[in-house]
Amino acid sequence: MAKIGVDAGLLSDAVIGSSRDNRSTMWNFIVRNVAQRLILLVIVSFVAHSFIHLAPGEPSEVDPMNPRMKPEDIAKIRAAFHLDEPLYVQYAYWIRDLATGELKSFKDSQPVLPKIWDRFLNSLPLFILATILVWTWAFPTGIYGAVFRGGMYDRGTVLLSYALISVPGFFLSYLAILWVVGWFGVPVISIKTFGMEHAELPYKIMDRVWHLVIPSIMAAIGGIAILSRYVRSQMLEVLGQDYVRTARAKGLTEDAVIYGHALGNALLPFVTMFGLLLPGLIGGSVIFEQIFAWPGLGRLGYEAILSRDFPIIMTLNFIAAVLTLLGTLISDILYAVVDPRIRLH
Amino acid sequence: MFVKRLLLFIPLTLVIFLVQSYFWVPTYENQAAGNPDRLVTYIEASIGDAKILNPILNADSASSNIVSHVFEGLLDLDEDLKLRGRLAIDWQITERAYLLVNPHHRFPDGTEVTGAKLFQKIHQAWKAGTIEGLQDRVQSIELLPSGKRSESISLLLPNAEGKPQLKDISVTIDVPERVALTLSEVDQDVFDRLQPILGERYFEHFPYDKLIHPQAAVPQELEEPLRAKFPDILPVGEHNPTILFHLRQGVNFHDGHVFDAGDVKFTYESIMNPKNLSPRTPDFEPIKTVEILDPSTIKIIYKRLYSPAINAWTMGILPEHLLNEEALTREKQDRGLSEEAQKTFGMRESRFNRHPIGSGRFQFVEWQGDEFIHLRRNENYWEGPAQYQDYFMRIIPELFTQEVEFRTGAIDFYGAQPHQVDRYKNDPTYQWFSSLGFAYNYIGYNNRKPLFADPMIRTALGMAINVDEIITYLVYGEGKRTTGPYPQNTEWYDQSIQPLPYDPQGARAIFEKAGWTLNRDGWFEKGGKIFEFTLITNNGNPIRKNLMTIAQNAWKKIGVKVNTQVFEWAVFLNDFVNTGDFDAVVLGWSMNIDPDLYQIWHSSQAGPQQLNFVGYKNSRADELIVRIRQEYNRDRQEELTHELHRLIHEDQPYTFLYAPLSTRVLDKKIVLVQKGSDGTEQFKKIYPTKSGDITFYFHKWRKLELTPDF
């Protein structure tokens, strides 16, 4: 919610400026926002860097379980990882290595960026499918709820969405795994069925799709429940507007009123939410990736945190910050583009 | 209305598309039935992925599991936990001892000590047999001339900010004349035996300052720490245990390259190469030199007496031809790395760590990060190929999902918890095992605190706790009482020592004898202060948390007031355990097979960041601990460890609770295949060996098509 408040502030700038030339105002708006965000990014990454290093615990490489390790040996490892330098120097090393692409994980000395890229490709289909599911299901559910307000359908979906919001996703996932495995006897975990190397291509593709189904549904359920509530209330608000009454008074069919006049206006605020989806790419599915043994970004980050693999944590955090800032920027621009009140005034 | 239809049509099509994919996926049944390969494939689940598949660099259990299949060491432990040869056929341990001429000393008869005289006296005694134990051990004696050598000494000192920093100082050493003795077995008392010749205090007041010269001026604050290192770099009496390994011939690495002594030496040098940051350095640091006598003979000379050092040779041997300087240079050029990356490029960065080549029973095939690691059996293994053809380690981070996969037959093994194993105990299609490992749980008292200074009080606290009940109710019977610091399945543990009885009345009596009286509130009180302390443990281990509560309640019953607190692991270690700022802790140790307890129990190891964090101090125990690590004879070692065990049991610095049993479950169709000399096969039930390990005969495992009835 706090994020939306910040965006509103930025928007009012746009409103004031837009009275002059629209196109140049738009450019000014974007340039100013990008600049602000770049400064913010540096601050965020520095603060995150300090937090991560100040948290108790050391990389497992520095604290190996070998009781014969002498302080001299440990000092050597710390020095190799630059851990004995002051925090700002470590930050500079990190920035330098990230910029040159030489950043290496503590854990296995592999370059960080290719590692993140591989995991990103694994996470991407899960993220996309879950998002599509959320958006395609939340709208019809919410709209019908609003149209048939107070009916059995509406009450049923309200109850169901509150139930789904309250039940933790990991618990539902466990139940789903037990149920699917128990009744249908097919594998659901991981990215593909183990030992399918020799199957034909269509089978391989469909197998991948099947493995996406349960985790993405599980990841989407909470989103559907929440978003459909928003859609319902937004729709209700619009349906109470004067212009809807006018449309009805003109004698239009109910469908034409709802889908022709009301829906477009009700959906407007949701356009901006597209931008805010982006950061979900990184942290959105830690729990589901963990439960479904999905080799994705969330798990990479989680395991890096457990073993205090600072380069990985820092870089993921940095990417998340970039995505968040980029997401809010896109939201702001979309809002400016979509909302006629902002463009025309 | 088009929009209305679209809103219905899109989600429904999507769902139909997703659901139909179900029909393309093979069911679990289809995966196993009609798939003969499944019977010769072993799939194990692991919670975490491996980090680095290199025996000298890995430090996590998933990596070491894979590494133990792919690589092979010179030695390993047999069924009875004794060393046996693998890449080495056999080995001999002898000793070379050096005695420096101490010119500041005089012989008991008052004459000055010179090299010639020292040699002559010892030689005479040896030939005449006047000194007990000398004649049968010493093979030859010689006098070595004086010489010069230079060395670099590393000092760890706090810098201006109080953080430890390494400083290297180069010194030149004038080594005086010395007498060298060659012994047929290691004898830690050889210099003591010479005392009638040398007289008292021969080893004291050695003129180091005249013999060791720093090459550059040493800052004043470094003089003292530097001087403290002198006896280590130039010991007056030096023991050099020596191991001569005869290597197996005709062994190849998985790429066909022949294994020889050069690979052994290379492995040692890689560990000691500071650039590689090997976590194994402390295990190999006692080595002075490694000499290749011929391609199948190698001699390891140690700097000092340290009998557990030989265990380090169970570590896998690296192929020199793939990782030496030449190979690494080629690799970094092939990979087209930037200049900066080329500079820091070393073994840690090599592709080898993600595609290892060893000489073990299995060879590496593929690694999909966070998915699986695939190995295939080595058909050319010197002992013959394993029964299983393929080995997979699947990474499944949740125990629950692991169990689901296990039940459906998609994996053969996972680290089942006691409550999970319980579900299979009555199922005839599964076999389960419960065996002792090397770990134990305990309550450790801060021996430095006056409250716990008296061993009798610590004993009384132990007597108040009903350990048998804990085993029955807390760990479902999967535990065994333990009385001391050694694992029960090693010879070092003295089985005759009885655990403390559960006797709250007796415990009370001890408190009363020590002057504590019960006050009106029911707490023990002395001099106006009640017996009160805080028991802490780390977060994330429910068993320890329960142990803490049980102990608190048991002590409350006898009149001891205990507060409990749980801390996050890093905080627990940094703020309490490492600084010694605690009263009592609930913790566990996972031990090793070697009998060396120096780190955990020697009084010199009680400083901050050290493992004797309870501050146990007993001079006899110190003496025993040092003797044990310097003793190379197993029988004598056993006598010493039993004495040490008894001593620690009497002192009760910990209340030793129990050793948890490790529980495992397997499909019953997996059996041990025993081949007769005529080629016939016999199937036997799998059993845990002495170490509690069921996989000792893993290479003989096979999965049958039908469940056998044993």
The class by helix and strand makeup of chain A works out as mainly alpha
Sequence of secondary-structure elements of chain A: HHHHHHHHHHHHHHHH
Largest pleated sheet of chain A? none
Number of helices of chain B: 23
Count of individual beta strands of chain B? 28
Q: Helical stretch count of chain A?
A: 16
Mean pLDDT of chain A: 83
What is the H level of CATH, i.e. the homologous superfamily of the domain at 112-338 in chain A?
Answer: MetI-like
The major pleated sheet of chain B works out as:
7 strands, mixed
- Poorly predicted spans of chain A: 1-20
- Measured between the Cα atoms of the first and last residue of chain B, the distance is 70 Å
How far is the N terminus from the C terminus of chain A? Answer: 27 Å
CATH class of the domain at 112-338 in chain A: Mainly Alpha
Strand proportion of chain A: under 5%
Structural class of chain B: alpha+beta
Mean pLDDT of chain B: 91
Largest interface, per-chain counts? A-B, 77 and 76 residues
How would you describe the oligomerization state of the chains in this entry?
Answer: heterodimer
* Range of helix content of chain B: 25-40%
Walkthrough of the structure:
The complex is a heterodimer of chains A (345) and B (710). Chain A is built from 16 helices and no strands. Chain A is mostly helical and 345 residues long. The two termini of chain A are 27 Å apart. The model of chain A is unreliable at 1-20 (pLDDT under 50). In chain B, strands 16, 17, 18, 22, 23, 24 and 25 form a 7-stranded mixed β-sheet that branches. A 6-stranded antiparallel β-sheet of chain B has the order 5-8-4-10-12-11. A 4-stranded mixed β-sheet of chain B has the order 1-15-14-13, with helices on one face. In chain B, strand 2 and strand 3 (83-85) form a beta hairpin. In chain B, helix 16 runs antiparallel to helix 18 (504-513) and helix 22 (619-630) packs antiparallel against helix 23 (634-651). Chains A and B meet through helix 3, helix 5, helix 7, helix 8 and helix 10 of A and helix 1, helix 2, strand 7, helix 10 and strand 15 of B.
